[in-house]
Structures are given as structure tokens and as C-alpha cells.
Design a protein that fits this description.
The complex is a heterodimer of chains A (about 375) and B (about 260). Chain A is built from 13 helices and 15 strands. By secondary structure, chain A is an alpha+beta fold. By secondary structure, chain B is α/β, with parallel strands linked by helices. In chain B, strands 2-1-3-4-5 form a five-stranded parallel β-sheet, sandwiched between helices. Chain B is globular. Chain B starts with 5 loop residues before the first strand and ends with a helix. The chains are: A alpha+beta (about 375), B alpha/beta (about 260). At the A-B interface, strand 5, helix 10 and strand 12 of A face helix 2, helix 6, helix 7, helix 8 and helix 10 of B. The structure holds iron/sulfur cluster (SF4) (3 copies).
Chain lengths: ~375, ~260
């Protein structure tokens, strides 16, 4: 484990820039902390944090100058690996027919700065979806291969976080090139740094950092333990899968269907949701293209088959979403589809809470069996 | 090109903004003019060819007895009839009269009320004749208008998704103004098409494109009240350009009943 002083943080960012990475990290904009290009520490939300509750998010000043003193915001990294809009191909008329052209992937090598443990797990899950199934998403594959990941272990948890119960955080376990833990005490501000890949090790070697002392490693472990004890939410997954498989209809789904707006925010902010749809666009000049964009199981068209949408009611759409996340995802991809990041809870405009809905389902089911 | 489809553009009670969107197509306008024969479009050309027409674009709502008859003639002369914008598809802002005494309005606004002959309601085209496609928006989006015309020419379904503005907002990467600022926003119940323009400028959605598929304003109102909106404010929020669209009308009336019950 190495030690990186706060004053030297830009050395790390510069080293990544020098080897050709475009840096993407947390920035503050429009009252939220989201992900965009950064040039150095000055672009980070230094000394800011976020307060999150169901349906509510506010940025707030911290009483220190932490670089990563907040949790996850409205964006997730999937925006960079699986962009919301992509052109699949375009078609052009020629004298004797037409040609199809596939636009090349932008070729930008990106270094993601400040990836949290839950987000690493989400990237791993999307890897399984896009790279390990019967159909390979080659654009995703190319973007993924060019990625450098700087993880940050969380030193505090947010109001809607529940990674501890999903066993995905708050400490990163693999899947990164470098992992940092921020330590701020009375008179010191530093990071412990750990390489998780040959590329990460190479960058660490370039920086030539000192070893972290035993006490410094302990302070870093204590910061992560603090986050673990602060989880704003929890989700009891014990026996949840068989329960969800069993409760296909019932009053519970109707009740949440009354409150849910079918607006799709939860699915679009979720770092694991991977659905997309394609639209064919034709132009007056005879050109055409196929566009792919994020889709959602809350959209009526999503389940459109000959004759209409098979999930007409909002209740059936919510049930589909929750059941896929927490049950059938296991059958399909061998893990939960939820990493406990809390985004769907915070960014639901009416504050519907996946942990509460799962718990309510348990209670309703128990009551039904008792009665 | 004798086989170019004949296009007509008709105006009823409206502000002209939607038909101007067609003229506003700039680069694409010449291509459109090549692909269709503009046979009747008083806003754009003096040439006025008689019907029948292959495609009629209809802007505006029905507010006079004369227009109620005219739309029948337009329909009978048009193979395909497409309505443009909130007035034609939902009655427009002028449908505020549907909740008031029209005689009071007329007396208030006109020096010689006796000159005014008008119906007591403003109603969408679909209340009068069969409509083949309704394009939403106040005003419509010119990209969507082109899409509808091109889709018609190419005999395919237009891509004008009926999902919420929130989906567009999230794809654009905007920060949600409801969640992050506490600003009331109609995005979750509003039909996409505007490109999430207002949230992109840190404003709440005004509902210009009318109700989305499965719009549930009552559930949104519960949250908007928690954010501090009163029932009279909610009535005004839902009762604007698309105030007569079913879901918005029902919710504005429910909130109005509630306002009355509270005595404000
Ligand atoms: S379901 Fe919700 S909490 Fe779980 S990973 Fe998706 S956004 Fe995060
Ligand atoms: S759960 Fe919330 S965010 Fe998801 S569709 Fe329903 S109202 Fe929208
Ligand atoms: S700002 Fe409005 S349109 Fe955008 S996600 Fe929030 S509620 Fe939906």
C-alpha cells in the first residue's frame, strides 16, 4: 500500500493524462455532483457533500476539504461505456444499390476517477451482459478495453446507500487499476493507494510514492468501516428470490402501481439497467440510419408485441422491474441486478424506495400466509 | 414530378406558431418542397389549388360554428389528416373558456361584444372529425414535424415516442430539478418531444406536449403538494396549453374541487 499526499493528487492525474487518458470525474453542476471531463483537482467538488433521501438530493458544504466527501449522484459511469444514444449504422444510396456504414467508436481512452465499490460491481454486471452473453456488443467492448479505473473506497455512506447489504461495498474488491482511500484527520490529508492491475502498477511506479505506514493503513480501514456503519438503507435479500418468484399478482403491486408514475427515471439512473431500443430513421435524400437509445421496462412500447403492449398497467411494469433486479437477474446473469447504490430511490420524483417495497412485499406475503 | 403528394396546411383557432415550424425547417424546407407539392398553405404561398389533398396538416382548435363546418370540408377533401400542436390536439390555451362563462370573457375583452360570434368551448379537431395522426407540442418540434412527413412519404410509422419527458431528460444527462432543487416539474406525466428543454435550463416542465402514456397526474400532485404547491396552483399548472387533454383536465378539476373544499 502506497501513500499519496493531498498536495500530490494532481501528480496522479497528470501521470494519467501523460499516458494518454482523458480524465472523467465528479464535478459540481446545476446543484448536483455528476460525471464529466476534468483537468485536475480544481475541477473536483472539493469540500462538498450531498444529502440524499427518497426523492430528494441536495449538495451541502462540508466542514473540511475532502476531495471525495460525497457518494454517488444522478449520473453513472454507464453513460461512458453504454452511451444513451448511439448510431448503430447508417445507409447511403449508391448507383447500384446502397452501402451500410458503421460509425467507429470514438477511440478516446478514458480514466474514470472516483469509481465507488458499488459502481465497480455495476460495471462488472454490465460486462457480463454486454460481453459474456451469446451476442457481443463490440462498441461496449472497445470502450471497455480502453478504460482505466481509479476507484475510491467510501469514507461515508449516503442516506439512500445500501451496498453493505448487497455485499458490493463500501470497499472495492478488484475490478480497478488503482484504488484510493481518503484519510482526513486533524492535521493530515492523504490517500492510501493500491494497484489492482499491471496498468495501475505502472502508473504507481511512475509516481514513485512512499509506502503507507501501518497506522495510515489502519486509518484508511477505519474510514471504510465508518462508511459501513452509516448505511442509510438496508435490503434483506434472504429468501427474497423465491418470494418474488411466487408473488406474481396481489395487492402489493397494485398499491405501488398507484404511486408509480411509470416515468422510467429509476431505470435510467440505475448503473446496471442495460435495456435499449432501436429506431430507424429515413431522410428525404434517401439516406437512413439506425439509432440505439436507452430504453426502460416502464415504457409501454418496451413490451409491444403484435397487437399491443403486454404490460399495460403500471403495477405490472413495476413488478417486472423489481422482479428482474432482485430475482430473475440471478437466473440470467448469476448475480443480483442491484448493487445497492440508492440512485433509483433518490432520483424517483415521488420517492419510491426499492428497499421499502421489497420489505413491504415480505410483510404482505407473511400476513397473507398467516391469514 | 406529377406523383408528388399534394400537401395542404389549414389554420383554425391558433397562434400560427406550429405552421411556422414548417417554414422554420430552413435547410430541409427545399427538400420538403421537392418531395411534396405545396398545394394550399396561405401562410407561405399565394397559390391555392383546389382539393382533394393527399395530406392535410391542421393547426388550431374549433371555437366557432363556421370552423366546425369548415373542418368537415377539410376532412372530406383530405386523404390523411394530421393535427399539429396543442390547440388542434387538446383545444389549446383558449380552452380555458371551457371552465368559464364565455359571455363574461367577451364583454371583458371586446369593446363591441355584439360583433363576436363564438362557441362557448374550444375543442380539439378529433372531437369533430377522424384524425389520422396527432403531433403534440406547444409549439410542435420541427424535427418531429419533418419526421412525421418523411415517415408518411416513406410509408413507415413515425418515431414520436409517447413516453415521459423524464426519459429524454435523463438521456440528456440533465440534473432533475424536482429532486435536486425542489422545483415542481410536469416531466413525469408529460409526453416527450421537446428534448427536455426546460429542465435543461433548470426550469420545471410546463407540460407543453400534453399527457404521456400512462400519465398519472394525481400521483404527481401528491408530491407537488409536499413540495409546497397549493391546490389552486396545481389547477393552474395542469390547466394550460393542454388543459383539456383528458388526464390533465381530470386532475385540474379534482384539484379545483379540493380548492373549493378548502375555501380558497
Ligand atoms: S436498483 Fe436502484 S439501488 Fe439497485 S443498483 Fe439500480 S439504481 Fe442502484
Ligand atoms: S419507481 Fe419512481 S422513478 Fe421509477 S418509474 Fe415509478 S415513479 Fe418513476
Ligand atoms: S427535471 Fe422534470 S423531466 Fe427531468 S427527470 Fe426531473 S421530473 Fe423528469
Amino acid at each position: 500500500m502506497k501513500r499519496l499526499g493531498r498536495a500530490e493528487f494532481d501528480r496522479l492525474l497528470n501521470a494519467l493524462t501523460e499516458v494518454g487518458y482523458e480524465l472523467i470525474g465528479p464535478v459540481m453542476r446545476d446543484g448536483a455532483i455528476l460525471y464529466d471531463s476534468i483537468a485536475g483537482v480544481r475541477d473536483l467538488p472539493v469540500g462538498w457533500t450531498d444529502a440524499q433521501e427518497a426523492g430528494q438530493y441536495r449538495i451541502q458544504r462540508r466542514d473540511d476539504q475532502a476531495l471525495f466527501g460525497y457518494v454517488v449522484g444522478p449520473h453513472s459511469w454507464k453513460r461512458f461505456l453504454f452511451p444513451p444514444n448511439q448510431t448503430v449504422f447508417s445507409a447511403r444510396r449508391t448507383d447500384d444499390g446502397f452501402v451500410l456504414e458503421t460509425p467507429p467508436v470514438d477511440g478516446v481512452r478514458r480514466a474514470l476517477i472516483g469509481v465507488r465499490a458499488c459502481e465497480l460491481e455495476a460495471i462488472r454486471i454490465q460486462d457480463r451482459v454486454f460481453l459474456e452473453g451469446p451476442y457481443l456488443d463490440t462498441a461496449y467492448q472497445q470502450r471497455r478495453a480502453m478504460l482505466f479505473v481509479v476507484a475510491v473506497n467510501c469514507g461515508q455512506a449516503g442516506g439512500t446507500c445500501f451496498c453493505a447489504s448487497m455485499k458490493t461495498g463500501p470497499k472495492a474488491h478488484g475490478g480497478y487499476d488503482l484504488a484510493l482511500t481518503e484519510v482526513l484527520d486533524a492535521d493530515e490529508h492523504y490517500f492510501t493507494v493500491d494497484a489492482g492491475s499491471p496498468a495501475g502498477k505502472e502508473v504507481l511506479d511512475r509516481l514513485d510514492l512512499p509506502e503507507a505506514s501501518g497506522a495510515e493503513c489502519d486509518a484508511a480501514a477505519a474510514a471504510v468501516a465508518r462508511a459501513e456503519s452509516q448505511m442509510g438503507r438496508s435490503l434483506d435479500t434472504d429468501g427474497l428470490k423465491p418470494l418474488l418468484d411466487r408473488v406474481l399478482d396481489g395487492r402489493h403491486w397494485e398499491a405501488v402501481g398507484q404511486r408509480c408514475l411509470s416515468c422510467a427515471n429509476c431505470t435510467l439512473v440505475c448503473p446496471t439497467c442495460f435495456c435499449s431500443t432501436v429506431e430507424d430513421i429515413t431522410e428525404l435524400d434517401g439516406g437512413a440510419r439506425r439509432e440505439r437509445r436507452w430504453d426502460s421496462c416502464f415504457d409501454g412500447e418496451f413490451s409491444y408485441v403484435a397487437g399491443g403492449s403486454i404490460r399495460q398497467s403500471t403495477a405490472s411494469r413495476y413488478r417486472q422491474w423489481l422482479t428482474h433486479k432482485l430475482s430473475s437477474w440471478h437466473d440470467q446473469f448469476g448475480s443480483s441486478g442491484c448493487v445497492g447504490c440508492g440512485r433509483c430511490i433518490t432520483w424517483c420524483p415521488v420517492g419510491i424506495d426499492i428497499t421499502q417495497e421489497a420489505a413491504a412485499l415480505r410483510v404482505a406475503d407473511a400476513a397473507e400466509h398467516d391469514g | 414530378m406529377p406523383d408528388r403528394p399534394k400537401l395542404a396546411v389549414w389554420k383554425f383557432a391558433s397562434c400560427d406558431g406550429c405552421q411556422l415550424s414548417l417554414l422554420d425547417c430552413e435547410d430541409q424546407l427545399l427538400a420538403v418542397a421537392d418531395a411534396v407539392e405545396i398545394a394550399y398553405f396561405p401562410e407561405a404561398t399565394r397559390v391555392m389549388q383546389p382539393g382533394p389533398y393527399d395530406v392535410s396538416l391542421v393547426e388550431g382548435s374549433i371555437t366557432t360554428a363556421e370552423d366546425a363546418e369548415r373542418i368537415q370540408r377539410v376532412r372530406s377533401e383530405s386523404r390523411v389528416l394530421i393535427t399539429l400542436g396543442a390547440c388542434a390536439t387538446a383545444g389549446g390555451i383558449q380552452s380555458l373558456r371551457n371552465h368559464a362563462e364565455i359571455a363574461d370573457y367577451v364583454r371583458l375583452v371586446y369593446a363591441r361584444p355584439e360583433y363576436i360570434e363564438t362557441l362557448s368551448t374550444s375543442t380539439p379537431i378529433t372531437d369533430h372529425v377522424k384524425v389520422d395522426f396527432e403531433l403534440r407540442g406547444c409549439p410542435i418540434d420541427k424535427g418531429q414535424l419533418l419526421e412525421v412527413l418523411i415517415a408518411h412519404l416513406h410509408r413507415r410509422r413515425p418515431n414520436t415516442p409517447n413516453h415521459s419527458v423524464c426519459q429524454t431528460c435523463k438521456r440528456a444527462g440533465h440534473v432533475c430539478v424536482m429532486v435536486a432543487h425542489g422545483t415542481p416539474c410536469l416531466g413525469p406525466v408529460t409526453h416527450a418531444g421537446c428534448g427536455a428543454l426546460c429542465p435543461g435550463y433548470n426550469r420545471g416542465c410546463y407540460g407543453c406536449f400534453g399527457p404521456a402514456d400512462r400519465a398519472k397526474p394525481a400521483a404527481l400532485s401528491t408530491r407537488l403538494r409536499e413540495l409546497g404547491m397549493s391546490d389552486p396552483e396545481l389547477v393552474r399548472l395542469y390547466r394550460s396549453f393542454n388543459g383539456q387533454a383528458e388526464e390533465f383536465r381530470v386532475e385540474s378539476e379534482a384539484r379545483e374541487v379540493q380548492s373549493g373544499a378548502q375555501g380558497n
